[in-house]
Automatic annotation (TrEMBL):
InterPro entries: Pyrophosphatase (IPR008162), Pyrophosphatase_sf (IPR036649). It comes from the Eukaryota. One of its GO terms (biological process) is phosphate-containing compound metabolic process. This is inorganic diphosphatase. CDD domains: pyrophosphatase (cd00412). It comes from Centropus bengalensis. Transmembrane segments: none annotated. The lineage of its organism: Eukaryota, Metazoa, Chordata, Craniata, Vertebrata.
C-alpha cells in the first residue's frame, strides 16, 4: 500500500521550527533553540512559513554513521522527514496516514536529509496521486517551489544555500519507499542497541525486545514530570 504513519511537527504556513526531541525521554515535540533563542524559519519570498504539513515518519533513523550509497553523505541523526501536500492544514502532534509519492535528497551541511513527498490518505484528491509525476500534473509548480524552499530557507540566517543530490531531481515512489525501509532497519538496530545512538533517548513502550523498553507507569511518570504548558511567547517581530 505504501502507506505510513506521519507525525506532524509543523503545520503548513507556520514558522516555528518544531521537531521531535530525540534526546529527551519519550521524544516529545519541542521548538528548536539556537544560541539561546527559540528558532523560527523566515518567510522566504514568495513563501509563507512551511509550504506543506511537515513532520516525520516514526520508527525511522538516518544513521550518522552510515554513508548513503546514493548521496555519498552520512545521515542527519533524525527520523526521516515528510512534506505532506494535501489540502488540509494539520495540527501539531497529529498522527496521519500518508501515501508516499517520491523523495528529494537534500544535502544539509554535509549530511543526507531525505524529504519524503506524500499525501494524506484522507485527502479528497488522494486517489489521484500515486507517484511523483501526479504531483507535477495536479499541482504545477509545487515541486519546484519545494526545491526553492529547501535551497533558500537558511539564507536569511546568514547560511549558504543548501545543496541536493541528483541535481535536485525528485526520485519516484519506489525509490522513496526503499529509503524509508532502510532507515527503518537503522532504527531497529538503534533500538536493539546494535548501533550506538550517542545522546539519542531510545526509551519506548512498544518494542518488547528492546533493552530500552519501559513500563506504562514509568512512561506516565515521565509525562507527569514535564512542566505545565504555559501561554506561548509572542513571535519575535523580525
Amino acid at each position: 500500500q505504501d502507506v505510513f504513519n506521519m507525525v506532524v511537527e509543523v503545520p503548513r504556513w507556520t514558522n516555528a521550527k518544531m521537531e521531535i526531541a530525540t534526546k529527551d525521554p519519550l521524544n516529545p515535540i519541542k521548538q528548536d533553540v539556537k544560541k539561546g533563542k527559540l528558532r523560527f524559519v523566515a518567510n522566504v519570498f514568495p513563501h509563507k512559513g512551511y509550504i506543506w504539513n511537515y513532520g516525520a515518519i516514526p520508527q525511522t533513523w538516518e544513521d550518522p554513521g552510515h554513508k548513503d550509497e546514493n548521496t555519498g553523505c552520512c545521515g542527519d541523526n533524525d527520523p526521516i522527514d515528510v512534506c505532506e501536500i494535501g489540502s488540509k492544514v494539520c495540527s501539531r502532534g497529529e498522527v496521519i496516514k500518508v501515501k508516499v509519492l517520491g523523495t528529494l535528497a537534500l544535502i544539509d551541511e554535509g549530511e543526507t536529509d531525505w524529504k519524503i513527498i506524500a499525501i494524506n490518505v484522507d485527502d479528497p484528491e488522494a486517489d489521484n496521486y500515486n507517484n511523483i509525476d501526479d504531483v507535477r500534473r495536479m499541482k504545477p509548480g509545487y515541486l519546484e517551489a519545494t526545491v526553492d524552499w529547501f535551497r533558500r530557507y537558511k539564507v536569511p540566517d546568514g547560511k549558504p544555500e543548501n545543496q541536493f543530490a541528483f541535481n535536485g531531481e525528485f526520485k519516484d515512489k519506489d525509490f522513496a519507499v526503499n529509503v524509508i525501509k532502510s532507515t527503518h532497519e537503522h532504527w531497529k538496530a538503534l533500538l536493539a542497541k546494535k548501533t550506538d545512538g550517542g545522546e539519542i533517548n531510545c526509551t519506548n513502550l512498544t518494542v518488547s525486545g528492546s533493552p530500552f523498553c519501559c513500563s506504562q507507569e514509568c512512561a506516565k511518570a515521565t509525562v507527569d514530570a514535564a512542566p505545565p504548558c504555559k501561554a506561548a511567547n509572542p513571535i519575535p517581530p523580525e
